[in-house]
Amino acid sequence: MIDLPEAFVRTTVEREGESGAAWLAELPGIVGELPTRWGCVPDGAVLHGGVGVVVPVRRAADGDTAVLKVSFPHPGNVHEPDAFAVWGGRGAVLLRERDDDRFAMLLERAGTSTLAELADGDELVAVAGWINRRLAVPAPPGLPRLREQADAWEEQLRKDAAGLSHRLPPYVVDEALATVRELARAQPDILVHGDLHARNILRARRESWLAVDPKGYAGDPAYDGGTLLKAYAVSLRAADDLPKAVDQALDVFAESAELDRERVRRWAQLHLVQAAFWGRRHGFRRARRGPQLDRILQCADFLAELLTEPHPS
To answer: Is 257 exposed, middle or buried (0-12, 13-18, 19+ CB in 10 A)?
Structure first.
């Protein structure tokens, strides 16, 4: 029987309530049974992310290392194994086994160090762009299409702009709405990660870097440029020349990913506007309230405005 990390138990119950508590009660049994079924033995302490646990294991037949990942049952986690199956190890960890009913996978074991820990500046953005390019392959039928979310995005943007207390100028919200109309509704059927940021890219051996924790969407690869730059924006706050740093990040990512810079900029601007509103409604994992949340929101507001072009005179 495993001991679940206290922090993971606490945050799961806070976020999911009774359903989270019920799942946590079943989790030790799941983690105890699946390695045996898949011919593995535990090989390290239980780790955790935001929505699941990761157990290092070793395959009894050949001694190869792997990890058992079990996630909280949620619609956002349904297509993670599908994405891994399509990539087949191209830019992402290999999927070895899956149990979809239990939201469980046996995955190739990468390192524990993330791109966020080992790189910064141009190197971080260039590696993320390279991973983005590696993951951009034709998406099979059955994966959720990002274009199907466009109507909901527009509705939420309009509702938030009218109903929340915020400092975003109208022209900033207008550009985000234009991106939804002009880019979000007509996206290609390309497999995208869906939550690409530096903490979801791990140092590895088979390839230098491998992606983890995909959502498994079909859409515009530049969408993931937006998710990367939204997460990276917090690191840019300390830059001596923030506009120059943002321009440089856009240039480096677009070149490394072989994407149109303007599309990446527009997706990043939309993501930051959405984040500015989301934070006002829900807070963020790193700050639910208080001065730290205020600082993050100020940063999101400023960067959303900075990424809006052309600026009104």
So the answer is: buried
Whether 301 sits among the annotated catalytic residues: the reply is no
Please tell me the distance from the alpha carbon of residue 50 to that of residue 302, in angstroms, as a whole number.
27
Q: Which amino acid is at 242?
A: L
Q: Tell me the C-alpha distance between 101 and 170, whole Å.
A: 45
Using an 8 Å Cβ cutoff, are 102 and 26 in contact?
no
- Enumerate residues 6+ apart whose C-beta is below 8 A from 149: 184
Q: With beta carbons less than 8 A apart as the criterion, state whether 132 and 224 touch.
A: yes
CA dihedral 306, 229, 269, 142 (to 10 degrees): 180
The residue assigned the tokens 């030790």 is 28
How far apart, in whole angstroms, are the C-alpha atoms of residue 168 and residue 300?
Answer: 10
Q: What is the pLDDT of residues 122-179, one digit of tens each?
A: 999 999 999 999 999 999 999 999 999 999 999 999 999 999 989 999 999 999 999 9
User: Does the pLDDT value for residue 313 go beyond 60?
Assistant: no
Rounded CA-CA distance 166/225 in Å is: 25
Rounded-to-integer distance, Cα 81 and Cα 83, Å = 5
The pair of three-digit structure tokens given for residue 191, joined into one six-digit string: 């497999």
Q: Which residue has the tokens 């297509």?
A: 79
Model confidence pLDDT, tens digit, residues 207-219: 999 999 999 999 9
Output the six-digit token pair for 43.
């090989």
Catalytic residue among 3, 101, 151, 195: 195
How far is Cα 255 from Cα 259, in angstroms, rounded to an integer?
7
Q: What are phi and psi of 17, to 5 degrees?
A: 70, -140
Beta bridge partners of 192: 217
